[in-house]
Amino acid sequence: MAEKSEGKKKLSMIVFSGTIDKLMPVGILASGAAAAGYEVNLFFTFWGLRNITKEGIRNQPAPIDKNYESMGPAMMAKMQEMKYPMWYQLIQQAKEVGEVKVYACSTTMEFFGIKREDLAEFVDDVVGVATFLDRAEGGIVLFV
Amino acid sequence: MAEKSEGKKKLSMIVFSGTIDKLMPVGILASGAAAAGYEVNLFFTFWGLRNITKEGIRNQPAPIDKNYESMGPAMMAKMQEMKYPMWYQLIQQAKEVGEVKVYACSTTMEFFGIKREDLAEFVDDVVGVATFLDRAEGGIVLFV
Amino acid sequence: MAEKSEGKKKLSMIVFSGTIDKLMPVGILASGAAAAGYEVNLFFTFWGLRNITKEGIRNQPAPIDKNYESMGPAMMAKMQEMKYPMWYQLIQQAKEVGEVKVYACSTTMEFFGIKREDLAEFVDDVVGVATFLDRAEGGIVLFV
To answer: Is the pLDDT of residue B76 over 90?
Structure first.
């Protein structure tokens, strides 16, 4: 509604968490925002980063947050019944319809000994905090 | 201090979490922001959504985050001693003093099979991601 | 790159969490942002607040999030091997290079019975929600 005259709307997420229940909203928000014309920037860091390695993708779905373990299986079953895409499929689809960038945190890669070639195909670049903040500047920024 | 000339200040929260220790700051932030003249938008999704059903309200307080179980009882006891309102009472009070809207996430309602009539009285509307982002645009947005 | 003409860039964080894996990104983001010329505001509340007491600093590192306990020791060992500073050292260093303010949440201090003299040296002030929102207004704001 309130179209900003100074440029495109922007949604950026710092994806810190590595549980499936947090990764799903990342995919849903990225997908919904891209479809609505937002530029989307995703910065995977800490536990989030492990999920965008090739091995991380093979091991999906990631575990559910221990706080919600009792409710998790029902939700996951419903998602499968609805044939709802997984979070990384939502991101891949979002990249096809809009301007969506996926960044891996350079500091976390050092902490975990992860190399560039270990990262999934849909990762666009390896960047540090300052670069990410620069890309995120002026839009909505969430820490997930 | 730095009053924005282009309109009202705005605080929006994506309430993803369902533990009492995260719901309390949602209520406190909503209440403090509304009293300070902010427009407040709350978008309950995933584990957060279960807390704004009629049944969810009856079952308060929600469990405390497992990471802080050892400190939880002391904090809850102190809150009761102070007669500090519960998070949903803070939201209800905030709605009386300011412009506070409570939204339920349409996608999560499908995941959990929750119907509109299951939602608590203070829920204003059921919306999707794009609508929420549009309402949140231009203000502070937190993922809780 | 896109230097805002209307003033300094700003990063504010509501530090709710008290696990070491969330405190580290707070330190890294504060440090990276300060070095890049951002004004940084940190508002420690709830479980986060306990970590900026004198006793909290003595008890570092705080426990790791239970969801990531299996991966925690490897990451912590790597950080030590890299001689990576602890989160509060990153904040102290950031305060030397840039405009970094550390605030303690007044409401949480009441909940936990924490007094001003219990707080660590690098805490600048005790403030409420409305004051913090006012300081954060117009920049990136994260809930960690």
So the answer is: no
pLDDT for C132? 97
Overall average pLDDT of the B21-25 stretch: 97
CB B132 within 8 A of CB B70: no
The alpha-carbon radius of gyration of chain C (Å, integer) is: 15
pLDDT of residue A76: 86
Looking at chain A, the whole-number percentage of residues with pLDDT higher than 90 is: 87
Mean pLDDT over C138-144 rounds to 97
Query: What does DSSP assign to residue C64?
Result: P
Residue A82 sits at the chain B interface (C-beta within 8 Å): yes
Helix %, strand %, coil % of chain C (to 5): 50, 20, 35
Which letter does DSSP use for residue C137 in this model? T
Query: B interface mutation test: which of C4, C11, C16 has the most B CBs within 10 A?
Result: C16
pLDDT of residue C137: 95
Supply the DSSP symbol for B7: S
Strands A125-127 and A140-143: unpaired
Q: E strand or H helix at A45, and its extent?
A: none
CA distance C100 to A137: 18
What are phi and psi for residue A8, nearest 5 degrees?
-70, 145
B82 touches chain C (CB under 8 A): yes
CA nearest to B19, candidates C23, A69, A48: A69
Q: Residues A11-41: pLDDT tens digits?
A: 999 999 999 999 999 999 999 999 999 999 9
Q: What angle do CA B83, B68, B141 make, to 5 degrees?
A: 75
Which residues in chain A touch residue B130, judged by CB atoms under 8 angstroms apart? 32-33, 35-36
- The partner residue sitting opposite C110, judged by closest CB among B31, B35, B82, is B82
Mean pLDDT of the residues in chain A = 94
pLDDT at B78 over 60: yes
Q: What number is the average pLDDT over the span B15-37? A: 97
- By Cβ distance, the residue of B111, B136, B138 closest to A79 is B111
Helix (H, G, I), strand (E, B) or coil at A124: coil
Q: What is the pLDDT of residue B8?
A: 87
Q: Do the Cβ atoms of A13 and A29 come closer than 8 Å?
A: yes
Which residues 20-79 of A have a C-beta within 8 angstroms of C?
45-47, 50, 63, 65-66
